[in-house]
What we know:
Layout: H1 2-16, H2 21-28, H3 32-44, E1 48-54, E2 63-68, E3 73-80, E4 84-91, E5 96-103, H4 111-129, E6 132-140, E7 144-145, E8 148-152, E9 157-161, E10 168-172, H5 173-184, E11 191-196, E12 200-206, E13 209-211, H6 241-245, H7 247-252, H8 257-274, E14 278-283, H9 289-304, E15 312-315, H10 322-337
Parallel strand pairs: 3-6, 6-10, 11-14, 14-15
Antiparallel strand pairs: 1-2, 3-4, 4-5, 7-8, 8-9, 11-12, 12-13
Amino acid sequence: MRASNLALVLGEIHRRGPLTRAALSELTGLTKTTCSKLVGDLVEAGLVVESGALRDGERGRPGVEVRLSGDRVAALGLEVNVDYLAVCIVDLTGRVRQRRQVHVDNRGSRPGRTLADLRELAEAAVAESGLSIAGAALAVPGPVHDGVLQHAPHLGWHDVHVDLGMPLTVDNEANLAALGELWFGSGARDFLYVSGEIGIGAGLVVDGALFRGAYGFAGELGHVVVYPDGPGCRCGARGCLEVYAGQEALQAASSMERAGEALGLALASAVHLVDPGRIILGGVFAPLFPQLEKPVERVLSARLGGMRTPPSLGVSELGSDAAILGAAGHVIRQVVTDPAPYTSTRSAPA
């Protein structure tokens, strides 16, 4: 009961912002005495702080506001990408306290060595932050099942059990980037996020929640076949979107026209299938959007115009930070959903 009540109180503060104890009692349905005990536990744990005076619209003296604290507990977001390693530390208020990125070619790298380098980068960031890390999440460029990176063709990794010597959630880069966009970006609650990196992935957010599919592998947009007779792809198929619009293809292209058309074809298929409210382009697609926009919209209109109006097309402002922010945000949501492990076990039940 105490654990669920702690989550109830912290959840209201996380969603609504600063609240008085009286307001928390009214919103949660808990007694003022119970709320006061729970807030005390959260303050002691460093998850919230009391400061200033806030009027609730009631007569009498204003109450003291209770808000999230960014001074003690934080989340660690990590990413292994094909050409870089990245780390960020985000406190409970959503403020980025540390961000580090090292450019390195991870193609054909040894997983153990690469993960050791990432851990060293993370440890340095944590030490400098001075914050207590509640947990970590890692973004990787491939499908993940039960903590195992099943296939990352651009890294040359297969069936890698990811272990950093710390409690860790591991997820696909595009999934976490979509969550980063949801929590730190545009604020849209229904969209298809398309991540343009060496590989291309997508994350579908429906009513504020990530859609993963039956086996967690939804969103492999880069391996949608756009030209069946096209060049071979690293996945073994031919004519995949990645061959035409992945980062390496874009760097070699003299024009963005063919890449934009291929991206438009893949997006048209996705729109027919999942009907997103909005399409948000991230990663390398964001800075290239002025060159990609016209061919993408032309193909979308041609393929969808007879049946429906194409969804709005926009770009993410998070750049290459989307995945590590989504990773850190995932940990923050875990703390908000279950704060009991971070509070004193000596407190009386509430």
